[in-house]
Amino acid sequence: MTNASPALLSEALGTFATLFEEALAAGEPDRTAMTVATAALDGRPSARTVLLKAWDARGFVFYTHLDGRKGRELQENPHAALLFHWPRVRQGVQVRIEGPVVIVGDEEADAYFASRPRGSQLGAWASKQSEPLDARATFEQRLADAEAEFEGRDVPRPPRWSGLRVRPDRMEFWYGADFRLHERWLYECDMAGDCRKRMLYP
Ligand SMILES: Cc1cc2nc3c(=O)[nH]c(=O)nc-3n(C[C@H](O)[C@H](O)[C@H](O)COP(=O)(O)O)c2cc1C
Predict the structure, then answer these.
(1) What's the pTM value of the predicted model, to 2 decimals?
(2) Which residues of the chain have pLDDT under 50?
(3) What angle do CA 12, 17, 18 make, to 5 degrees?
(4) I need a labelling partner for 61 at 20 to 30 A (CA). Which of 27, 47, 161, 165 fits?
């Protein structure tokens, strides 16, 4: 079945919106927590948890250090897979989102950074994400240095800390069911923006 892209993409985003609301109502401990998988150019995958901070028709945004492992991998190979698991929704729901990754604009990143607690802002300056750390005291010293540097003024966004937006070209909704008769709906869009929706065997 081939449909016009905007209609199917908005159907998929609408489904995400519904499930995201249901996750809140169901009391999921953190419905914004998602796994983000990346891969270096040698094909070796890596995964970790991040928090979803914004989403709309342009994609799904998280914030991170650009020179940490995921940041480096995404600069080499700007494609990611996101994974949500909300066990309290219906009989358990899993959402998989895949696509190319782009950096958000400076204005958007600045606005989000400014909304963070000051402690988190200072932490972003103090952390050299994913680099080896000889002792916890070294990190605490870097935090104290950042506190001193920005005392009495707003903390600006570190230049190598920003938001990354995953633009979905593949979204799958997995609904748990009795006897492992789970239901899976896949939305896939090609390079021309033509999308299709299919059911998959569980
Ligand atoms: C619940 C949770 C939320 C997290 N949120 C973020 C986040 O939004 N951004 C981030 O850079 N790291 C976040 N982290 C830390 C990452 O999982 C990871 O340790 C860090 O980003 C370094 O990953 P990397 O070395 O692959 O770049 C979070 C960890 C947990 C457990």
Answers:
(1) 0.95
(2) 1-3
(3) 100
(4) 27
